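User: I'm putting together a teaching handout on how sequence relates to shape, and I'd like one worked example. Could you take KIAA1045 RING finger domain-containing protein from Xenopus laevis, show the sequence you're using, and then write out its predicted structure as tokens right after it?

Assistant: Happy to. First the sequence, then the structure tokens directly below it.
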Amino acid sequence: ITNDEMCEICEVWTAESLYPCRICSRVFHDGCLRRMGYLRNDNTLELTEMAHTETGWSCYYCDNLNLLLTQEEMYSLMEMFSQCKVIPECPLTLDDFLHYKHLVNRQLQDKSLSDDLEEQVTLQFSSMDPEKKGQVEWGDFISHESICLLQKLRTENSLLRLLTAKERERTRATFLSLDQDNNKLINGSECRRAQHGWFRKQSKEAVSCNVSISHVGPMSESSPASSTSGKSQDKTPLTSDPDEGRQVSWDTFLKENAIFILAARPNSSAIHLKPSV
Ligand SMILES: [Zn+2]
Ligand SMILES: [Zn+2]
């Protein structure tokens, strides 16, 4: 998979100083990004550090999950915000977030959140608040709601069409590394564990605020495929995993991971769609 040859912004070719997006094929000059206001001086270093690492850097198109919505979807999201009295551009506390999710649930299903769902909402909140500041930034909230909407409204095939060539290639490599006996099948628990693997991004310092190119820390040593850290969140080995015996093909693997791969696009260290278990 090759990157574009010319800077997306100025359309000039100067090989040495182009920074590639990890999601799409676009490349950029850091100077052009700064000129356009996509880069503030204090995170230039991070772009230059991140863009050529394995974690990579997402350009301002790919960083913004909101751009994946159609105009209609966008409109319905904004409708919901205004009905639920969500104040745009403001960070949300856990109470705000729970309140919003309660209202949305009541509108859609005419009932309050179950304890189980409330627990999930709380977990989702804390995975979007990696610095434990007690609040979720507006940009992360929008990204989360956008991905929820995609999950709810789009078909599996339409989600697959959103994946880029780079994302497919990474997913393919992950699948192949899990398929150790080369029979084109992996088991269900490996498939589920991979859903955590796309979010291997950690902030290395306090996230200041939601800028389009924000802080992404160094990738952990392990690739999503070989990582074992996801296991710590799994059940204890004593409990038998019903998914262990399920056989998963490449097509199914791609389908079951697509929404999480999309959710992992932003540079923000927040996890915008927490996989269950
Ligand atoms: Zn340029
Ligand atoms: Zn991009």
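A couple of points you could highlight for students: The pocket of zinc ion (ligand 1) is lined by residues 7, 9-10, 12, 29, 32 (CB under 6 Å). The chain has ten helices and six strands.
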